[in-house]
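Table S2 (text version). Query chain:
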Amino acid sequence: MNSSLLTFLPFVVLIGAMFLMTRSAKKKQQAAASMRDQLGPGSGVRTIGGMYATVKEIGDDTVTLEVAPGVHAVYAKNAIGAVLEDDEYNRIVHGTADDLNIDTPVVPDDASSLLKDEPADADQAEAPKLDLGKKDEKAAEDTDGKTDGEAGAK
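Corresponding structure-token output:
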């Protein structure tokens, strides 16, 4: 009797664990469904991919999001990861005055402002000499007096 109880004990534990896991999964599904029920045109959302957008239209299984001004994309409702409060959405997407750091360096549009020690006059500046792999003619001559391209050159 005691050995049969020990034989069935692991099965009882597994069945209990499976029951708890399915219960937890059902709760998550219900929470996601109630979150999607909060969707409405104008709601700020975050997709499961991490993109922030504004809801424009809601279909049966899809939702149209405005991902940038005038840019609309159709997503599955399952792709909505969170419906955000207006304050939170505006803080994340648009930022607030406190979030903006004015001391950050500004990246210039062109590289000319990054150059230092520019000569005052462009005519006085020497152009850098580039080595294009050409040899001097004197160095290219053989002891025979022939250049590399001539017949009989070594």
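Notes on Table S2: The chain has a mean pLDDT of 76. The CA atoms of residues 64 and 74 lie 4 Å apart.
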